[in-house]
Amino acid sequence: MSKNNGKFLLGGLLGAAAGIIGGILLAPKSGKETREEIAKLALEITKAVKTQVDETKSRVKDIFGKVSEEGTTKYKQVRDAVIAKVASVKTAGKEIDKDKYGKIVDEVLTDFKSDFEKSKSGLEKLAKYLKKDWAKISKALS
């Protein structure tokens, strides 16, 4: 993967982090609680980002058969949509467990189903990878 694609991946990850932080800022909490939550979430996201670029390349190759900018973009769009939905549910005050997270992944993938008409196995692999991220998501949410 070229140097620009690595920067593209990092930009996507930072964009997702900004979306989550924006959701936290809009939550009805005191300033101190919000700052503490942002600091904790930022630390978790930073840890995830350090290993995320290589992991993303591997996942994109498995899902789409090769690493390409188009595949990487689609993977990140779906992943970011899942993160946004999780943040929305969480900031609404609802609890999210592994089963609820799995349902959120399935709901989001339904919206992207037409993008995977040629590769049903790609959609299934994407679902598997996103659901596998529950441990990372739950850490960031707690």
The sequence of SSEs as H and E is HHHHHH
Q: What's the number of structural domains?
A: 1
Runs in which pLDDT lies below 50 for 5 or more consecutive residues are none
Overall 3D shape: globular
Note the gap between the termini. Answer: 34 Å
What does this protein structure show overall?
By secondary structure, this protein is mostly helical. It has one domain. 81% of the residues lie in helices and 0% in strands. The chain contains 6 helices and no strands. The longest helix is centred in the middle third of the chain and has 34 residues. The protein is globular. The N and C termini lie far apart (34 Å). The mean pLDDT is 77. This is Gas vesicle protein.
What's the quick description here?
The chain has helices at residues 3-25, 31-64, 69-91, 98-111, 120-132, 134-141. It has 142 residues and is mainly alpha-helical.
